[in-house]
C-alpha cells in the first residue's frame, strides 16, 4: 500500500490541495479571492517555460527518431498506427461526452472574457505564424510544434553537425526538465490558491460535474479496453492474435496501474510481447517508440476535457471546434505525451490554443489527475495491439533467421 501511495503521491497531494482550495472558495470566498495572485504567479511561471519546453523537447525527440531512417517503412507504420489509434478514441469520446453531457447544465461563471473560437476559427493562424517571433508566444503552440518537428527532421538529416546539435538539445532538455521539477514543487500551493479563487464565485454543484465526467471516462475506458483492444488485436493477428493478446495483457495492465507510467512498464510490455510470439526485431524497435507516440488514453482524456470545458462555459461546440479538438487530442498523444516531465503542458496547450480563460486550468488538472491511471493502462495495453498491427504490416521484411 505504501509503495502504491508513493507512486501516486504527487497526484494525491495535488488533488488534496485542489479539494482544500474548493472548500475554502465555497466557505470563505472573500479570503479565497485574495489568494488569486499566488496562483497567477505559478501559472505565469509555467507559461514562461512552455515555449522552450515544447521546442527543445520535440526537436530532441524527432532528431533521435530520425536515427532510424534506415528503418523507414517500419517507422512510418508505427507513426501511422499511433495517429489512427489516437483519432479513433478521441472522436468516440467527443460523441460520447456530447451525448451524455457531464456538465448537465451547470455553468462556470467567469468574469474574464472568453474568446469563443467556435464562430471564427482561423486554421492558418493556428498552424502557422508570419514571423519567427510569433513562435515565441504561448498562443502559437501548434505552429511551434509544427516548426519543431520540421527542425527535428532537419537536425536528424544533418550528419555530424546534426549530432552536435542533437547532443546540445539533449543537454538543454535536461536543464528544462529540472526547471519543471522545481516549478512542480509549487503546484499544490499555486493551483490550490487559483482554484480557491475560481470556486469563490461558483455554485457548489460544480464539484458534482467532476464525478460525472470521471465516471463517463471510466465507462468509456472499460468499453475501449475490451472492444477496442479486441478489434486491434484481430487486425494484428486475426482470431489467434485476439487470443494471445488477452492471455498476456494482464501483467502490463496491472503494472501500468501500479506505476502510472508507460515508460516504467516498458520492460514488462516487451516481455509480454515476446510471450505473445511477436517478432523480437519488430517488438524491440516498435515498443520503445510506441511508449512515446501511441497514447490513446491521453487522446481520450484530452477530448473529454475540451468538450467538458466548452459545456461548462456555455460555448458552442461547432464543427470547427470539433476538428481542432481532434487535432489537439492527437498532438497531445503523439507529441505532448512524449515530453518527459511536461506536467500541465496538455492543459496549457488546450487553453492557449482555444483562447480559453486561465481559470479553467485547475479544472482540467483535476480531470487529468483523476483519470491518469486509467489513461496509462489504455496507453500500455494498446502498445501491444499496435505492435501486433505493425508486425502484420512489416513482418515479412523481418523474418527470423532459420536456425
- H-E string: HHHHHHHHHHHHHHHHH
CATH class, named Mainly Alpha
Structural class: mainly alpha
Shape verdict: globular
Number of domain modules: 1
What Rg do the Cα atoms give?
21 Å
Helix content range? over 70%
Number of helices: 17
Low-pLDDT sequence parts:
115-119, 338-342
Mean pLDDT: 83
CATH fold-level label:
Proton glutamate symport protein
Distance from N terminus to C terminus (CA atoms, Å) equals 47 Å
Number of strands: 0
How much of the sequence is in beta strands?
under 5%
Identify the CATH architecture: Orthogonal Bundle
Report the sheet with the most strands, covering strand number, pairing sense and barrel closure: none
InterPro entries: Na-dicarboxylate_symporter, Na:dicarbo_symporter_sf
Transmembrane segments: 41-62, 74-100, 141-163, 175-196, 216-237, 249-270, 296-315, 322-342, 348-370
Keywords: Cell membrane, Membrane, Transmembrane, Transmembrane helix, Transport
Protein name: Dicarboxylate/amino acid:cation symporter
Task: Indicate the topology.
Layout lengths: L1 H6 L1 H19 L1 H5 L2 H30 L6 H28 L23 H5 L13 H16 L2 H26 L2 H13 L6 H43 L1 H10 L2 H14 L4 H14 L2 H18 L5 H16 L10 H10 L6 H34 L9
Write up this protein.
The chain has 403 residues and is mainly α. The chain has one domain (2-398): Proton glutamate symport protein. Helix content is 76%, strand content 0%. It contains 17 helices and no strands. Mean pLDDT is 83; it is low at 115-119 and 338-342.
Amino acid at each position: 500500500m505504501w509503495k502504491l501511495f508513493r507512486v501516486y503521491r504527487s497526484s494525491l497531494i495535488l488533488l488534496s490541495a485542489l479539494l482544500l482550495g474548493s472548500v475554502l472558495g465555497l466557505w470563505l470566498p472573500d479570503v479565497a479571492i485574495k489568494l488569486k495572485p499566488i496562483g497567477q504567479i505559478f501559472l505565469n511561471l509555467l507559461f514562461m517555460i512552455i515555449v522552450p519546453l515544447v521546442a527543445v523537447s520535440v526537436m530532441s525527440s524527432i532528431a533521435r527518431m530520425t536515427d532510424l531512417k534506415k528503418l523507414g517503412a517500419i517507422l512510418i507504420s508505427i507513426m501511422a498506427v499511433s495517429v489512427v489509434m489516437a483519432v479513433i478514441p478521441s472522436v468516440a469520446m467527443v460523441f460520447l461526452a456530447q451525448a451524455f453531457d457531464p456538465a448537465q447544465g451547470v455553468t462556470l461563471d467567469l468574469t474574464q472574457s472568453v474568446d469563443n473560437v467556435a464562430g471564427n476559427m482561423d486554421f492558418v493562424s493556428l498552424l502557422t505564424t508570419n514571423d519567427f517571433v510569433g513562435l515565441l508566444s504561448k498562443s502559437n503552440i501548434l505552429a511551434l510544434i509544427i516548426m519543431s518537428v520540421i527542425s527535428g527532421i532537419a537536425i536528424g538529416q544533418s550528419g555530424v553537425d546534426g549530432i552536435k546539435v542533437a547532443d546540445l538539445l539533449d543537454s538543454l532538455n535536461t536543464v528544462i526538465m529540472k526547471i519543471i521539477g522545481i516549478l512542480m514543487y509549487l503546484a499544490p500551493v499555486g493551483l490550490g490558491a487559483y482554484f480557491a479563487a475560481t470556486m469563490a464565485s461558483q455554485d457548489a454543484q460544480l464539484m458534482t460535474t467532476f464525478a460525472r465526467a470521471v465516471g463517463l471516462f471510466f465507462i468509456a475506458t472499460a468499453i475501449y479496453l475490451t472492444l477496442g483492444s479486441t478489434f486491434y488485436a484481430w487486425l494484428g493477428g486475426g482470431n489467434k492474435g485476439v487470443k494471445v493478446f488477452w492471455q498476456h495483457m494482464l501483467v502490463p495492465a496491472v503494472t501500468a496501474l501500479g506505476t502510472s507510467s508507460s515508460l516504467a512498464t516498458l520492460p514488462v510490455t516487451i516481455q509480454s510481447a515476446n510471450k505473445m510470439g511477436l517478432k523480437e526485431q519488430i517488438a524491440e524497435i516498435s515498443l520503445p517508440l510506441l511508449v512515446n507516440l501511441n497514447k490513446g488514453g491521453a487522446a481520450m482524456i484530452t477530448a473529454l476535457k475540451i468538450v467538458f470545458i466548452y459545456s461548462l462555459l456555455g460555448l458552442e461546440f461547432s464543427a470547427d471546434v470539433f476538428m481542432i479538438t481532434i487535432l489537439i487530442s492527437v498532438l497531445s498523444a503523439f507529441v505532448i505525451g512524449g515530453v518527459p516531465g511536461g506536467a500541465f503542458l496538455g492543459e496549457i496547450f488546450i487553453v492557449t490554443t482555444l483562447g480559453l480563460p486561465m481559470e479553467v486550468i485547475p479544472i482540467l488538472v483535476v480531470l487529468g489527475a483523476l483519470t491518469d491511471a486509467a489513461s496509462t493502462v489504455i496507453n500500455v495495453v494498446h502498445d501491444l495491439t499496435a505492435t501486433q498491427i505493425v508486425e502484420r504490416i512489416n513482418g515479412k521484411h523481418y523474418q527470423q533467421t532459420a536456425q
